[in-house]
Specification:
This protein is α+β, with helices and mostly antiparallel strands. It has 2 domains: about 250 residues, Bira Bifunctional Protein, Domain 2 (BirA Bifunctional Protein, domain 2, 2-Layer Sandwich), CATH 3.30.930.10; about 80 residues, 3-Layer(aba) Sandwich (Rossmann fold). It contains 14 helices and 16 strands. The strands form 3 sheets. It has an 8-stranded mixed beta sheet with strand order 1-5-6-11-10-9-7-8, sandwiched between helices. Strands 13-12-14-15-16 form a 5-stranded mixed beta sheet, with helices on both faces. It is elongated. The protein binds histidyl-adenosine monophosphate. Histidyl-adenosine monophosphate (HAM) binds next to strand 6, strand 10, strand 11 and helix 11.
């Protein structure tokens, strides 16, 4: 017996009955981003490992534990992309996009890969849609990208969504705060989880994200970053909040909000959904004003987000019916095949969904097949040249000329 294969752990197949809802989401994202001037970009599924080490950050869980890294036949270290922002910044620098009109506004979708412990809403291959505005430090850009995701979730009808907003300040201004935070963590390091305590020096902010009860208790009295923003960062944050309100986007301020990637500066945000259980974040992002320069480009501020396609679909938890075809053409015998093929081709050119029998079935078998695929109409081509059209819902049957079928069934 040949072995039976299954999709690898943490991956899944998207079956046709699940594809319709996914297509609706991608279309809505494309339209909403397009209406604000975001253009599509696609980057490769793998990149040099060093891009993520440098871009996402060596102290992050993603780089430390979750990357699918392999060596190619030339001995180069490559990594299946765990996220899309570092690759897009790489493309921005590589293609000299700083010479284009700024900001460069990009949107994308595709598969991403993280070696995480699989559970509902968390996979090893998942899909994101995202948007990035590169080349503006204006709070207007923050608000524009946040509004895109807010509009998308509203358009899709995702229930129970909350937008959480925070600010990490600029890199320079954050340094003094981090010293204070590290001192607080060091003073109570015996209460912290091993993971947090190991990373006090390299990534103290992650302590805010910990689910470890001891760490959580320590964080309750921790100094808050929002109280330590410098004037420029505070003003930026204040303006983001005002403009969001002007755009009627509701949000709550979350002083303990942190994110799992190292590149963030100033605004960070997270859309969470109460329908999702443990993996409650549907999408998030923020500013990353230092990343392009860190990847060898000119000093360029930027802001963006990504949302998990599977998480949005899980939150919707409803299947859209696969749209049924418009017409099935049944033939009395193979003599009518040429006519059926020609007519099907013509009607498909006009945008109708038309199927013909591909299995040499009897007339009875063909009619049964038309029922199974739920075709709206069935056209029967007889050997004597006659043709009849049946509306399957009303069961009305009439004799027709094949040339008239288009007008008779066009929706
Ligand atoms: P992220 O928060 O790592 O950000 O991922 C964004 C979204 O991808 C999450 O909110 C979640 O919905 C989804 N996601 C992440 N990991 C998984 C997984 N293992 N399974 C299923 N869904 C997942 C980023 O990736 C940044 N690049 C976002 C960004 C863009 N920041 C600025 N620009």
């Amino acid at each position: 017996m040949p072995p039976k294969f299954k999709a690898p752990r943490g991956t899944f197949d998207v079956l046709p009955e699940q594809a319709a809802q996914r297509e609706r989401l991608l279309r809505a994202a494309h339209e909403i981003c397009g209406r604000s001037g975001y253009k599509n970009i696609a980057t490769p599924s793998f990149e040099d490992t060093a891009l993520f080490e440098r871009g996402v950050g060596e102290s992050t869980d993603i780089v430390r534990k979750e990357m699918f890294t392999f060596e190619d036949k030339g001995g180069r270290s490559l990594t299946l992309r765990p996220e899309g922002t570092a690759p897009i910044c790489r493309a921005y620098v590589e293609h000299g996009m700083h010479k284009l009109a700024q900001p460069v506004k990009l949107s994308y979708s595709g598969p991403f890969f993280r070696h995480e412990r699989p559970q509902a809403g968390r996979y090893r291959q998942f899909h994101q849609i995202g948007a990035e505005a590169i080349g503006s430090d204006s709070p207007l850009a923050d608000v524009e990208v946040i509004t895109l995701l807010s509009d998308l979730l509203e358009e899709m009808g995702v229930p129970g969504v909350e937008l959480r907003l925070g600010s990490l300040g600029s890199l320079e201004a954050r340094a003094a705060y981090l010293d204070e935070l590290k001192a607080h963590l060091r003073s109570r390091s015996d209460e912290l989880s091993e993971d947090v305590s190991e990373r006090i020096e390299i990534n103290p902010l992650r302590a805010f994200d910990s689910e470890h009860p001891g760490t959580q208790a320590v964080m309750e009295d921790a100094p808050q970053l929002l109280d330590h923003l410098d004037q420029a960062d505070s003003e930026h944050f204040e303006e983001v909040r005002q403009l969001l309100s002007a755009a009627s986007v509701e949000f709550v301020i979350d002083p303990a909000l942190v994110r799992g990637l190292d590149y963030y500066t100033r605004t960070i945000f997270s859309f969470v959904c109460d329908q999702l259980g443990a993996q409650s974040e549907i999408g998030g992002g923020g500013r990353y004003d230092g990343l392009i320069a860190q990847l060898g480009g000119p000093d360029t501020p930027a802001v963006g987000w990504a949302a998990g396609i599977e998480r949005i679909l899980l939150a919707l938890d409803e299947e859209v019916e696969v749209p049924a075809g418009d017409l099935f053409i049944a033939v009395e015998s193979a003599d009518q095949n040429s006519k059926a093929v020609a007519l099907a081709a013509e009607l498909r050119h006009h945008g109708l969904v038309v199927e013909i029998d591909l299995a040499g079935r009897s007339m009875k078998g063909q009619l049964k097949h038309a029922d199974r695929i739920s075709a709206a109409h069935v056209l029967t081509l007889s050997n004597d040249g006659a043709a009849s059209l049946r509306n399957r819902a009303s069961n009305e049957i009439r004799d027709v000329q094949p040339a008239d079928v288009l007008d008779l069934i066009r929706p």
